[in-house]
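Narrative of accomplishments. A recurring question from our advisory board has been how the design workflow behaves on a single, concrete structure rather than in aggregate. To address it, we present the structure tokens for one chain from the evaluation set, followed by the sequence designed for it. No filtering or post-editing was applied between the two.
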């Protein structure tokens, strides 16, 4: 039970960190401008924000469940992962941590996809909010891709959870956006100032998470690849 709670908490944290990472944060700003233009009608702001967050959740849930379930449902691949997952996990965690710390970088098509969607953020009707959320979720950049493919998918496969952990991850990505939609409807504060603060929090959170990933990856490598045995004194 404790292992599942830890796995669910990890998936939720990865989802929240994905949502406030640089590229998704930029796309969420465009979405908030779309939602905020209806600020004169608070109920409509909330409804639009709900559809946008549902679009994001649906995209991550479908993609995460599809990939994790495919790994788990193929007998040969499932056996391979059961045998070698711990050895694969160490280097994968280290690479993911390096992306989070920006030690590694790749040119990614997600930025162009975000730009395409942002140009349409102020067009369309009420239902377009859900489509925007779906599109923005699939517009991966290196950091969000590292969190999703290098963090969530290995966690879901290791815990043999093809649906629950992707669902929790999707909920985590929706929390910041849903909170902003609610606060915009209340007219509680300046959106730009709030995003600046979130960007500062994200900078530290991503580096702390990246460091933890690298340390955990080194630990897995030492134990499962190099056979180092740690003895802890009582």
């Amino acid at each position: 039970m404790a292992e599942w709670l830890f796995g669910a908490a990890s998936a939720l944290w990865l989802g929240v960190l994905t949502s406030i990472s640089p590229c998704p944060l930029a796309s969420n700003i465009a979405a908030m401008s779309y939602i905020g233009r209806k600020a004169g009608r608070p109920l409509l702001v909330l409804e639009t924000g709900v559809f946008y967050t549902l679009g994001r959740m649906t995209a991550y849930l479908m993609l995460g469940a599809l990939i994790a379930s495919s790994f788990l449902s193929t007998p040969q691949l499932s056996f391979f992962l059961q045998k070698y997952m711990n050895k694969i996990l160490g280097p994968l965690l280290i690479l993911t941590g390096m992306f989070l710390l920006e030690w590694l970088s790749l040119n990614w098509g997600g930025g162009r996809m975000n730009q395409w969607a942002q140009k349409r953020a102020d067009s369309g009707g009420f239902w377009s909010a859900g489509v925007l959320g779906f599109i923005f979720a699939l517009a991966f950049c290196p950091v969000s891709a590292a969190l999703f493919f290098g963090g969530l998918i290995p966690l879901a496969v290791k815990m043999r959870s093809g649906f629950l952990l992707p669902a929790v991850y999707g909920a985590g990505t929706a929390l910041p956006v849903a909170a902003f939609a609610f606060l915009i409807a209340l007219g509680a504060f300046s959106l730009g100032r709030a995003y600046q603060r979130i960007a500062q929090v994200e900078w530290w959170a991503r580096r702390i998470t990246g460091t933890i990933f690298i340390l955990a990856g080194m630990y897995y490598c030492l134990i499962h690849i190099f056979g180092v045995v740690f003895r802890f004194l009582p």
